[in-house]
Structure formats: C-alpha cells, structure tokens
Amino acid sequence: MLDASTGSETLFADHYVDIRAPRASDVIAAQLRKTGMVTLDGLTTRQEVLAFASRLMAITPHPHGAPDGLTLIQDTGSHAHRAGYAGLGNGELQAHTERSGAPRPPRLILLVCLQPASADGEALLADGRDVHACLVSENPEAAVALCQPRTACFGAGTGHATQVFTVQADGRISIRLRQDGLARWSPIVQPYLPVLRSAITAGRHRLMLQVGQGYLLDNHRWLHARTRFTGNRQLLRALGNARFAFPRGFAPHQATAVLPKPGGRVPGAHTLWR
Known about the structure:
single chain; 274 residues; alpha+beta; Double-stranded beta-helix; six-stranded antiparallel beta sheet; four-stranded antiparallel beta sheet; globular; disordered N terminus
C-alpha cells in the first residue's frame, strides 16, 4: 500500500529535533524553512502539547477544536459519515492540507500522539515539492492545469475558489488540497486528478507515531493522510501561523518554465467559479 522507500523509523530520525535542547526553537524554524517537516517526542499531556505549540505559533481556532485551540483527533463514532469529518472516524483519510477551504490556511500543523491505535493508523506524508516535481517531469500538462486560478472549490457552502498549486511572484510554490465531498473541480483539472493522486502515492512516506511522538509540518508544503485503524487512537492537533520568519511556499526542484506566471492562463482555459 505504501510506495515510498523511506520507512517510518528512518523518516522520523531524518527529521527529528530534540525540543528540550538549547535553542530548539531556532533549530525547528531553520528545518521548517529547509524541509518543511520536523519530528519530535516527549509531549505526553495536553498541557505539554499546548505549551510547545504556543512557543512556535499563534494558534488559530478550528470548528472541531476546544477553547484552548487544540483538537482531539479520535473516532467519535458519530461523525465519520459527514462530509469534512472523516478525521473523526476510523477510516482511511485521503491526502490533504488543513483548512483548504479557508482564504488563508494556517501555515503550521502540529500533530501529537496521545494513544496509538490497536492496529494500523499510520500517517501517510507526501512532500508537495516532490509531488510537483513528479508532475512537471512526467505530465507537464497536469502541472500547468493544476496551477490554473480558480479551478478548484474547497469547503462547505459556497466554499473557496482556489487551485492546487499557487505560484508566488518570486517563483516559490504552495499547495492546497482536499479530496472529500467538500471538493469540487473545474473541467480543466478533472482529467488530471488521477495523475495527481498517482504522484502523491509515488512520493508518500509512512510514519507510525508512538505515545508522545508527533510531527510539525508546513501546511503549505506537505500533504498528510491516514490509514484505517482499529482501537482508541487519540492525537492532539494544533494549527497556527509561525512566530518566526517563514517564506511562502517551497522552492521547486527545477525551473518552472512549464508553468504559467502568477495570474496567467493556458490558452482557452476557463473555470467554473467567478
């Protein structure tokens, strides 16, 4: 099921930062700028998770969250059948970024394990930079289409018109995605969705979190998902914006001449949302 060669232990070790070390916050900030991902351990209580998150980010509220800004991610037994609530069930969760339907999604996501599942429940992580590079290399037309403005609409109600890849004025790129019942697509990009999913699958990595372990991601760069699980799996999530300087998006692997300039369009392109 998992296609990337990097195993759980290797991925965790490669991105690990000791949050108790001197100047840990500076190390975390530098690593997020470089790779967009940090793994960590030693957070076993809600208070510890909240204190750590508050050091690094201005926590933003979430509709499923508690007054302190944290969200308990677990199978509630009553939410999974509702669009947008798959995270509160025990089924597979498709690759996505957080708050994709918000005009300005939070930059950081922290997810910490309080109790692992009895079986399965692995995190599936994919670097949007690698996904983008795969598309540019293997299907340039898909790369072009997926950065066309207003070719996706994410969220409930009228939602938010946007695109999967956003090319910034300086050439950096950010990613935004959801794949559930709250995602609608323009005919421009619908033919390329299988290609996008294949690129995500080709680049995803497995991470099995144990008690107190977690990951901190650049929500504008990394996609995360989850396998189906059994048992009382519990994680705490914090979303927010960094308290340190953090350039928008990621630098692509290679020149993006194949991509339109910000605000540009493929000849003949049209969108569904005005």
